Amino acid sequence: MKQNPNFFSLENRVWQLLVLLALGMTWGSSFILMKQGLKGFNGFEVAVIRLSFSFLFLLPFLWKDIRRIPAKKYLWLALAGWLGNGLPAFLFAIGLSKINSSLGGIINSTAPIFTLIIGSTLFGLHFKKAAIGGVLIGLAGTVYLVATGSGGGDSSNLYYALLPLLGSVCYGFSTNIIKTRLQELKPMVVTGGALSFVAPVVLPAMFLMGLPSQALRDSLHGTAFFYSALLGVVGTSLAVLVFNYLIKHTSVLFAASVTYIIPVFAMAWGFVFGEDITVHYFLGMGVIILGVWLVNRAK
User: Fold this and answer.
1) Angle subtended at Cα 127 by Cα 122 and Cα 132, rounded to the nearest 5 degrees
2) Cβ-based neighbours of 101, under 8 Å, separated by 6 or more
3) Is the pLDDT at 167 greater than 90, yes or no?
4) Distance between alpha carbon 275 and the CA centroid of its chain, in Å?
5) Does an H or E element contain 299, and which?
6) If we measure between CA atoms, which residue out of 93, 66, 39, 83 comes closest to residue 232?
7) What's the rounded Cα separation, in Å, for the pair 231 and 3?
8) How far is Cα 179 from Cα 137, in angstroms, rounded to an integer?
9) What is d(CA 214, CA 245) in angstroms, rounded to the nearest whole number?
10) Which H or E run includes 297?
11) 101-105, 200-204, 247-251, 279-283 — which one is most confidently predicted on average?
């Protein structure tokens, strides 16, 4: 007789849902943290600080295991690092320099759609016809948001609104890579190993640009540096580590469904910090979530 999994095991569906909710809360807060970092630094600098601290935080925990990574996994870890952490960190931070954090969080919810498209076309996942409608609905919601939901003033820059969308495409690649090419590695090794291919670029850049010294110069830069570093530790290191555990024990689409929850918290934080939340945000988010729900239902 098969025993029920322990509640605190990720084999347990209830625990999987609780972890998904916690990830949604964490990543939903990431967008406003980026906004706070952007008060003292530009988007490129915020991403450099974020990625540097995410690697430094994990380094003490993976020093032993990282040396045991098979050489044949290096390429996949490098791709997971840059597509799952590196490029999206720059794309979202630069994009949020001109759009609201709420909009960035909503656009991020397209990740499961790209996860399915990329998984079915490049990684051999089964693509059921019933999911096509969900993909088209989700993409329609995204087009609507980018075209009309970016508000006024600086938020109306179409090109900056497209950057988070490109970041979501990157997430679609990395999620499939982790599930299909790095499944046998420990989540800590996957997370830290992937970041180790990003660190040689961002760590020297952080010091060459003098970002730590700027943080010590005045309270504005110091506070912005703190929020960017916090984003790296909590929003990247810890959250990505937990996400990789979730991928290991569930499907790529279930794990990617965290984007159901992210926009809710992103919009809540945006409201708290005085961002202009338009009706377009709610309409676009509703259409995207409907599409993502249909994609998951048809998987």
Assistant:
1) 115
2) 31, 32, 34, 35, 266, 269, 270, 273, 275
3) yes
4) 21
5) none
6) 93
7) 39
8) 26
9) 36
10) helix 279-297
11) 200-204
Distance CA 157, CA 160 (A): 6
Res. 152: pLDDT tops 50: no
Question: 155 pLDDT exceeds 90?
Answer: no
pTM of the complete model: 0.85
Overall average pLDDT of the 37-50 stretch: 97
Count other C-beta atoms under 10 Å from residue 235's C-beta.
Answer: 22
Give DSSP secondary structure letters for 25-69.
HHHHHHHHHHHHHTTTS-HHHHHHHHHHHHHHHHHHHHTTGGGGS
Say how many CA atoms lie within 13 Å of 218 toward its Cβ: 5
Residue with tokens 């850049």: 205
What is the band of 129 on the pLDDT scale with cuts at 50, 70, 90?
low
- Residues 120 and 290: their CA atoms lie apart, in Å, by 20
Tokens of 81: 């690092």
Average pLDDT for 271-298: 80
Residues, the chain? 299
CA distance 54 to 193: 12
> Alpha-carbon torsion 163, 165, 166, 167, what sign?
positive
